Amino acid sequence: MANARSQYRCSECRHVTAKWVGRCLECGTWGTVDEVAVLAAVGGSGRRAAASASRPVPITSVEAHRTRHSPTGVGELDRVLGGGVVPGSVTLLAGDPGVGKSTLLLKVAHRWAQSRRRVLYISGEESAGQIRLRADRIGCGGKDVEEIYLAAESDLHTVLDHIAIVRPALVIVDSVQTMSTTEADGVAGGVTQVRAVTAALTAAAKANGIALILVGHVTKDGAIAGPRSLEHLVDVVLYFEGDRNNSLRMVRGIKNRFGAADEVGCFTLHDNGIDDVADPSNLFLDQRPAPVAGTAITVTLDGKRPLIGEVQALLASPSGGSPRRAVSGIDHARAAMITAVLEKHARLTLGINDIYLSTVGGMRLTDPSSDLAVAIALASAYANLPLPTTAVMIGEVGLAGDLRRVSGMERRLSEAARQGFNIALIPGGCQGVPPGMRTLSAPTIVTALQHMIDIADHRTGAPPGPRRLDA
Question: Which CATH class is domain 66-278?
């Protein structure tokens, strides 16, 4: 026999207390402590007498085709998902308001319906008329979308009834924070409601072999709204990133049980919808007819995808007071460290100037491999020495002035060669250089700066020979 007693558990860190508190005593999170019922055994070993519902089977008897990917028709999204959605899987797509989540998923529904597959689009935020207006605006309307079913509903049980009646192959719920159920306490969007709704939808998707995509909101800190355990309930977690002042959007894989978890898909959002960007490197390069001083090209790895980016540097005389430091798209602390290395080991007096650093196209360079490009851009601006537009700089700068090798160098150089670059300034010891690419090995930042002078002199036809940047 067993009797029920109550405990209070935090949904973030799973800490258990004997009474309810508004703030978890372990992790300090507000509003995450909920009451849970615990069965305590009385008189007996408490061994479960019921037989298991499933039995172990040999792995060779499991049908592998049931977990194969079904392409959505949106190439960049399929790339991040590993080939498409899997029947019975649950995908969570999170992003800031207005970043384009609904527009992307409406395009997914359109491409899905064009292949004669049924999709059910559940919206708890908009009416069916509003969704139809957006579909017409982005070109997802017409007679070829008869397999798209719309429902403006926020009640969980009604949504489950719609799924049973329509019998779709794909269900999109926009968003999970607007769904609610009477079987759980709290308000819609709360911790208890979000977990209960997600668990019920996940069970329905896996029982019927339906691919389910959930839209999730994010908090001010950029985390998915709701409990952290929500990410553990789903199979795939995607983050939709983008700046309101830029048309570039990125879908980044954080978790994927059916493929790689570090893929990135690129899109451009405009008034007429959202489009794939199969070759995004050109978005991050400044198109100019002639080279100018203070620019350097690098190849960064975003997940497994090599992307070519441009770093721009500008030095100016301070107008008064302390010199100014303005950085966009580059880590501020990393830029300060590279400036200090150039002053210490290359004897470049950069600290007395205002320093402005930026990337092109809204790109964010978080990979340490962009350190060398930042250093070369600063040195080029300091000496007013333009570099050839066919040269790339890849390498991590150490505090001792040394250059360190980075991972994925072969993929980076292959992408640079594909884009037409023929000179690569890199640390020593690189293997697998693509044909037509000339590499300049530099063990230290001083050697790299000398190589920069040499390739600049070769472009301008200046006589060869060692010289200093401040000469």
Answer: alpha beta
Q: Do domains 66-278 and 283-460 have the same CATH topology?
A: no
Nearest CA among 117, 29, 116, 108 for reference residue 73:
108
> What confidence category does residue 341 fall into, taking pLDDT thresholds of 50, 70 and 90?
very high
> Which tens digit of pLDDT belongs to each residue from 379-429?
999 999 999 889 999 999 999 999 999 999 999 999 999 999 999 999 987
Distinct helix (H) and strand (E) counts, the chain: 10, 21
CA distance 272 to 247: 12
| Alpha carbon distance, N-terminus to C-terminus of the chain | 90
Residue 392 and residue 421 in contact, taking contact as beta carbons nearer than 8 Å: yes
**Under CATH, to which class is 283-460 assigned?**
alpha beta
Contacts of 67 (CB under 8 A, 6+ apart): 86, 87, 88, 258
Spatial distance between the Cα atoms of 447 and 35, rounded to a whole number of angstroms? 64
For the record, the structure tokens of 232 come out as 């553990």
By the 8 A CB rule, do 87 and 63 touch? Answer: no
Q: What is the pLDDT of residues 157-209, one digit of tens each?
A: 999 999 999 999 999 999 898 999 988 877 788 878 888 999 999 999 999 99
Cα 440 from chain centre:
32
280-298 confidence digits (pLDDT tens): 887 777 766 778 899 999 9
Rounded Cα distance, 395 and 418, in Å: 19
- Domain locations in the chain? 2-41, 66-278, 283-460
